[in-house]
Amino acid sequence: MATNLETIVNFSTQKGFVFPSSDIYGGFAATYDFGPVGILLKKNLEAAWRYWNVTSRTDMVEIEGAIFMHPKVWEASGHIGGFSDLLVEDLVSHRRFRADHLIEDAGVMENAGALTPEQVDDVIAEHKIKSPDGNSVSKAKRFNLLVKTHLGPVEDDSSLVYLKGESCQNIYLDWKATQMVTRRKLPFGIAQIGKAFRNEITVKQFLFRTREFEQMDVQFFCKPSEADAQYEAWKSNRWDFYTKCIGLKEENVRWRQHELDERAFYAQDAWDIEYKFGEIGFKEVEGVHHRGSYDLDQHAKFSGQDLSYFDPETKERYNPFIVECSGGFNRLFLLTLFEFYREEEVTTAKGEKETRIVFGAPYDLAPFKIAILPLMKKDGLADKAWELYEGLRKQGISADYDESGSIGKRYRRQDEIGTPWCVTIDYDTLESGTVTLRHRDSMEQVGEGGRIAIADVAKYLSKEQFGK
Ligand code: GAP
After folding, report:
1. Domain total of the chain
2. pLDDT, tens digit, 9 for 90 and up, residues 374-432
3. Does residue 282 sit in the same domain as residue 398?
4. What is the CB neighbour count within 10 angstroms for residue 71?
C-alpha cells in the first residue's frame, strides 16, 4: 500500500491513470481527466459497484438522471437554504479557507464541521489561529456550495439553474415512475452513478476533494417500520462491499458515526465509511444516511404531486422511508490506487537489487488483463504477437501490446499498471506454437517447462467474479 499522496499523484499521472485537466493551459483548479489506463480502472470499478449493488441483487434497479433539473428541486431539497460551509478570509491575501479545516489543521479539534459561526470565531480567537498565509482571518460566514449557471439566451434570475449538488435527487423525483413501471413492492432500491458539483471553498488532496465528481448512490425505499432494520443491513452491506468486493484490508477501513449537530439537514442518522489514505489518515469515502421520508415529503409539498405508496398488505398510503448509501467515485478510485500500489525489492537476472512497483489490483479491477510482448520486432515475431493481440481484443479481453525496450523493462511497465499476465512471443513460438505466460505477482511462468500452447492463453485468464 502507498503511504503518501505525492507518490500516488506522480504514479498515477506518469502511468496514464489520471491527467491534470487543461494541463497545457497550466491546469485548472483541481479538475482531472482519466487517462487511457485510468478509464479502464474506472469502468472496472463501476462494474464492480454495479454487480454488487444492482445486478447480483433482486431488489435493485438503476437509472441515470439529467444534470440539469428544475431549480425548485434545490429549494425543496433544502440545498438553497442549508447546503453551506463556513468560510473565513485572510485579511491580507484575501484568500478564503474553510473554517472547519483551518481549525482541524491547527490540531485544535477533529471534527469542526458542526461549529456555528460564533463558535468558530471564538475558537479561532482563543487559539490564535492564522490562515495558512500566516495572517489573521475575518469572522466566519456561510457560503452556499451549489454551482450556479444560466440556461437559455437570457441571463437573468429567470434563467438561473443549479448543477446537481448531490446526484441522488433524480431518484426521488423518479421514484414513483420507477416503482410503477417495474411493478415493485417495498422494499426495493434505485441505484445511480451520476455527476455532482460543489463550489468547494478549498479543493485539496488530489482527487479527494474536487468541485466536479461522481457519486455512486443506492437509495433504498422501505416501510417506515422496517427502515431501522434496513439501515443496519445496508451498513453491513457497505462494509462487505469495500472489504470483500473491492478487496480492501479491514485495518484500512472504519466506521464513524456523525455527531447529532454534524448531520446533514436531511439525515436522522449518519455513518461514514472511512478509508486510511496512508499518512493523510482516515477520511470519508461513503455516507450511509437514514433520510426518513424527508425527501419525498419535501418534493410532494413543493411540486404538489402525490409521491406516496399504496401498501397492498396494510392498505395504507404513505411516503416510504429512504436508506441512502452515497459513495464518492473519485475517492473510491483514489483509495484503490493507495491500497494496491506497492514497492518491493527484487533481484534482477544479473543479480542486482532493484525496486519493483506493482499495482496489485485484483484481476477484476486490473485495467489490462494481459499484455502481449514479442521478444523481437523482426523475423515475424511482432506479426505473430499482433495476431494474438488482435484475437484477444476481438474476444473482448482487455489486452495491451508492447514491443519497445527490453523484456525486463516491459514486464516492469505492465507490473506498474497492474496487468496480471504477460505473454512473450519468441523464436520457439514460431517453431512449436508455444509461448511463455508470466504472472504479475509471482513473476513465475506457468505451464510445463514454463511454456504453454498459444491456443491455451485465453484459458489462463481468470474468470473471477467481483467479490468472490
Ligand atoms: N446524497 C448524499 C450526499 O451527497 P455526502 O456525504 O455529501 O452525501 C457523499 O456525499 C459522498 O460524495 C462522500 O462520502 C464523498 O465520497 C463524495 N464527495 C462529497 N463531496 C466531494 C468532493 N468535493 N469531492 C469528491 N468527492 C466528494
Report:
1. 2
2. 999 999 999 999 999 999 999 999 999 999 999 999 999 999 999 999 999 999 999 99
3. no
4. 18
Q: Tell whether 105 is covered by a domain.
A: no
- CA-closest residue to ligand 1 atom 17: 328
Per DSSP (E only), the strands in 293-340 are 309-311, 316-318, 321-328
Which atom of ligand 1 sits closest to the CA of residue 165? 4
Take atom 27 of ligand 1 and give the residue whose Cα is closest: 328
**Residue 402 to residue 379: CA distance in whole angstroms:** 17
Would you say residue 100 lies in a domain?
no
Q: Which residues, judged by CB distance below 6 Å to any ligand atom, belong to the binding site of ligand 1?
A: 166, 168, 198, 200, 209-210, 213, 215, 284-287, 324, 326-328, 330-331
Q: Are residues 184 and 53 in the same domain?
A: yes
pLDDT of residue 82 exceeding 60, the answer is yes
Q: Which ligand 1 atom minimizes the distance to the CA of 203?
A: 23
Distance 328 CA to ligand 1 centre (A): 5
H or E element in which residue 162 lies: strand 160-162
* Ligand 1 atom showing the smallest separation from residue 168 Cα: 1
Mean pLDDT of 291-318: 97
**409 is in which domain, residue-wise?**
368-460
* Same domain membership, residue 455 and residue 312: no
CATH number, residue 181: 3.30.930.10
Residues 412 and 300 in one domain: no
Closest residue to atom 14 of ligand 1, CA basis: 286
pLDDT digits (tens, 9 = 90+) for 308-356: 999 999 999 999 999 999 999 999 999 999 999 999 999 887 888 999 9
Looking at the fold, whether 264 and 213 belong to one and the same domain comes out as: yes
Is 374 found in the same domain as 331?
no
Residues 373 and 327 in one domain: no
* pLDDT attached to residue 350: 84
Positive or negative: CA dihedral 457, 458, 460, 466:
positive
Return the C-alpha cell found at 433: 506454437
Phi, psi of 409 (to 5 degrees): -65, -40
Could you tell me if residue 73 is inside a domain? no
Lowest mean pLDDT segment, chosen from 28-32, 436-440, 457-461: 457-461
Q: Is residue 254 part of a domain?
A: yes
| Largest pairwise CA distance in the chain | 81
CA of 238 to the centre of ligand 1 (A): 15
Atom of ligand 1 nearest to the CA of 200: 23
Distance in Å, CA 284 to ligand 1 centroid: 8
